[in-house]
Every structure is written in C-alpha cells, then in structure tokens.
Amino acid sequence: AQAVRVATVEATADIGYAASSSYTGRIEARLESQAGFEIGGLLEDVPAEEGDTVTRGMPLAHLDTARLDARQAEASAALAQVRAELELATATLARTEEAFAYKGVSRQQLDEARQKVEALRASEGVAVARLDRIRVDIDKATLRAPYDGTVVKRFNDPGAVVAAGQALFALQSAGLPEARIGVSPEASASLVAGETYKLRVNDRSVAATLKTVVPRRDEQTRTFDAIFLIDDDTAGVYPGDLARLDVERFVATPGFWVPAAALTEGPRGLWESLVAEADGQQHVLSRRTLEVLYANEDRAYVRGTLLPGDLLVSKGTHRVVAGQVVTVEDASRLASALPDDDGTER
User: Fold this and answer.
1) How far apart are CA 293 and CA 306, in angstroms?
2) Helices then strands (H, E): number in the chain?
3) Residue 296: per-residue pLDDT
4) For residue 20, with 0-12 CB atoms within 10 Å meaning exposed, 13-18 middle and 19 or more buried, which class applies?
C-alpha cells in the first residue's frame, strides 16, 4: 500500500514558557460604611436622601433631643448649686485661716474648712463632667457624614426609634474607586506594588496601580486579594463592576512546544503524540507519552519522552496509528494538500 503522507513539525526544546492567567474581581469604593448614631433615640429628621452627594461633616439625620435638653438643664442647675456652695466654703476658709492666726479657732476647725473646700471642688469637677457628657450626647444626636461621598441606601425614615449603632445609611466615598481581585499565590508573587497594570472593565482597558497584595489567603477560593487603585478618571468605572486582570509569568522548566492538534488523550491523565522515526526512505510512526504543562488555543508546552529534532505528526492523527509506515512532509507545505477532518480535499 502507498504510504500515507503526514504533516510534521520538528520538536524544538525550550527552557520554559510564559503562562498567561486571567483573574476576575470587583470594583469597590475606596471607603464604604454603614453610618448610624452612637446613641439611641427617636428619629426626628432625615434630610439626606438616597443618591445625594454629601461632604464631610454635613448633617444626615437628627434625633429628638427633648430628654437630653431636660438633663442638660438639670445638670446646669446642679453645677450652679455646687459652685455657690464652693464660693461660700472658700470664704469660710479664708475667715477660719484668719481666726486661726489669732488663736480664735482650733486646728480641727481649720482642717474641716479646708477639706470642705476640696470636697466641693471635686463635686464641681463631677458636675462639669456630667454636663459635658450631656452636651456631647446632644451633639451626637446629629449624624454627620464621615467623608465626602454618596448616600447609597437609607434604611429608616423619620418617626422610627433607632438603637445605638444601628445602621441608618450606606455610604461610599467620592473619587476614583479601587479594584479587589483574587489571584493565585504564583501570580501574586509576580505582582509589584506601585507598578501600573491594565485591567479590563466593561470591555475597556483601564490603567490601575497596584496598592498592595493582602497577605492572607481566602478560606474559600484560596487566593490572595490584590488591591488596585484606578488611575483613569474618565474610564466610567463604578463600584459593583467586574474587573479582569491578565497576568503573564515565566515558568523556567525544560520542555517542548507542540501543536495542540498533535496531542491525543492518553492513560492516567497523560497525553500522547505520534513521532515519525526514519526507516530507510520512509518513516514509521511511534507513540510518545507526554505531560502537558501549559496550553492555549493553538499549542501546548509539554515534557516527556520527546527528543530535540523528533518529527511530530502535527495534524490528522486520527487517520494514522502507531507502527504505520508514512511519508513525512513539512506541515507548512502539506497543509493545503491534506484533507480536512471531514475527509474532503482542500
């Protein structure tokens, strides 16, 4: 029988391969918080609406302060009473010291006058602190924006009774957002803080600077979070968008680049390829077992029982078998003459 012509490529050894990996993450605001009151009370007024742009210190909501106002009046009266008693005790102490100089009173009476002044001064400090605490609570009855940003969500309306620490607003900071992308440990080792990388967001290329790689592995995905600061303020990037990072790294390991069409599935997770070995004027096919280290759409980087210069059957492996006598030709010259997978000539 006439020997079948096969297209072959020569196996060329290489020292390693550049592996490209794609990782997906999410765009986030640089600051996000659930804002609420430090004290509880009746929600009296909520001037901030969803979507409003706010600046640092702007009032967002107010609590009813009737009880606090009454406590402030009571504390102010108590402070005034203590100060009046302290004024009288101070005058009494001065007269007692003057009388003691002329032996008009005993040392016990002098000590008692001094101690009363000290006790009233301490009571004055307590009253001042109590009044200051009430004033702080009155100030805390107004919820203010912690930074420049946007009100994303409002959870309560006027008339509701809120507890201390209960979230009233969801806020996000203004300005350029950042991207949080989970990357593999191998990819994280190739990233350099401060370097600029290209991210794909909404089918657009966006410049971003690597801020840091968080040194903590995610319990579910087993990846490290890489945080990028978006540099392009015209990119139209918003929190919640998906971002993709392509990382290319060089893996130094000896192997061979082969066409993907030259590989067939073998046993135990390995792959096989047919090699044409010279036999006189013709060639005989033999099978080689390979391990695929990296692959893309067109070719694969493998290691195994190949030798530099081996002629691999680059396509049409389904038409030949190991041990078959073939005539080899260069793949580029034979490409137009070989039949397609459906058996038709080109």
Assistant:
1) 14
2) 4, 21
3) 82
4) exposed
**Would strands 4-10 and 325-330 be described as parallel, antiparallel, or unpaired?**
parallel
User: Cβ distance 285 to 321 under 8 Å?
Assistant: yes
Sign of CA dihedral 155, 156, 161, 165: positive
Rounded to whole angstroms, the Cα distance separating 8 from 18 reads 24
CA angle 64, 162, 45 (to 5 degrees): 40
CB distance 330 to 8 below 8 Å: yes
What tokens appear for 47 in the block? 């001037």
Task: Report the alpha-carbon distance of residue 306 to residue 13 in Å, rounded.
Answer: 9
The answer to whether the beta carbons of residues 25 and 239 sit under 8 Å apart is no
Given this model, what pLDDT does residue 338 score?
Answer: 46
Confidence at residue 133, expressed as pLDDT on a 0 to 100 scale: 94
Residues 23, 187: contact at Cβ < 8 Å? yes
From 284, 287, 285, select the one nearest 271 (Cα to Cα): 287
The reported pLDDT for the residue numbered 137 is: 93
CA distance 21 to 36: 42
> What pLDDT is recorded for position 142?
95
Hey, what are 256's tokens? 């061979």
Query: What pLDDT, on a 0 to 100 scale, did the predictor assign at position 331?
Result: 57
Give the containing element (helix H, strand E) for 13.
strand 13-28
Q: Which residues of 81-187 form beta strands (DSSP E)?
A: 142-144, 149-154, 161-162, 167-173, 178-183
DSSP 270-289: -EEEEEEEEETTEEEEEEEE
Residue spans of the chain under pLDDT 50: 335-346
Helix (H) or strand (E) holding 205: strand 204-217
Cα dihedral value 203, 209, 211, 215, nearest 10: 60
Residue 276: burial class (beta carbons within 10 Å; 0-12, 13-18, 19+): buried
Q: Cα separation of 109 and 99, whole Å?
A: 10
pTM > 0.85: yes or no: no
